[in-house]
Design a protein that fits this description.
The chain is mostly beta strands and about 250 residues long. About 5% of the residues lie in helices and about 35% in strands.
Length: about 250
């Protein structure tokens, strides 16, 4: 079941009831643009936040958000175990995968155990795996879904506004595109072999592009609570995956 945030035309209406009446209570009434109303007891509301997630479409059953960039981004991370439900992207997950591991199961910390190709007699990793047989997003989501390229990661960093926030007790970055739509990247940490760390503090997301600085590394976008940028990480580290898709506009 997929949740799409409804933009409310009427933010709230408070109905005050006499405190002496035991069968009365203070409630908040939300009215949607279609006139539908939902009533929630104020005592059940811990906090109120406004999330600008606008789902534009679905492809192969996965929600798409158009940020006004060269590609559209998935609403949620790739999670082969299905624990990070598509209806709720604001959760930390241990869905962290090695670069070019389309199975998502490898735990080796030896770069030689990850897919490579032969070039001029020397074993080298592929320069770009986005959309290829090594692409974990393409293999598991199908259609035109794929890993973003490094250029698309750079575009996400340079053309969008990044705001570190906590949503539903999950730290991460709200990324607001030029058109005002946004996605949320949770700080899922990293994985080294079977060891996990930095959940809620660090976030790393793979691109499909090999690092030109270091062939044992892949390009990625990485962030902590204070900064964010593109960079590169050893290919055997487990990072998160946020797929992209190109739509005909």
């Amino acid at each position: 079941m997929k949740r799409i945030t409804i933009l409310l035309s009427t933010i709230f209406a408070l109905l005050a009831m006499p405190c002496s009446a035991k069968d009365k209570q203070l409630v908040m009434v939300f009215t949607s643009p279609t006139g539908e109303q939902q009533t929630v007891p104020v005592e059940n509301i811990k906090n109120i936040s406004f999330v600008n997630d606008v789902v534009e479409n679905f492809a192969e059953g996965h929600a798409i958000v158009d940020l006004g960039l060269s590609v559209c981004w998935a609403y949620n991370n790739l999670d082969l175990d299905g624990e990070n439900l598509e209806a709720e992207p604001y959760t930390l997950t241990k869905a962290l995968y090695g670069w070019a591991d389309a199975t998502g199961k490898k735990r080796s910390v030896d770069a030689a155990d990850y897919p490579s190709k032969e070039e001029t007699g020397t074993v080298l990793p592929p320069d770009e795996i986005s959309g290829t047989q090594f692409d974990i997003a393409r293999k598991n989501w199908g259609g035109e879904w794929r890993l973003p390229t490094n250029d698309e990661m750079v575009e996400l960093v340079q053309s969008c506004t990044w705001i570190f926030e906590t949503v539903n007790q999950t730290p991460g970055f709200r990324i607001i595109g030029p058109n005002g739509n946004s996605i949320f990247l949770p700080a899922c940490g990293w994985r080294y072999g079977d060891q996990y760390g930095a959940e809620g503090v660090y976030g790393g997301y793979w691109s499909g592009t090999l690092s030109q600085e270091e062939i044992t590394a892949g390009r990625c976008v990485a962030f902590n609570t204070n900064t964010h940028n593109t960079g590169y990480t050893k290919r055997y580290y487990g990072l998160a995956v946020r797929p992209v898709i190109k739509l005909n506009r």
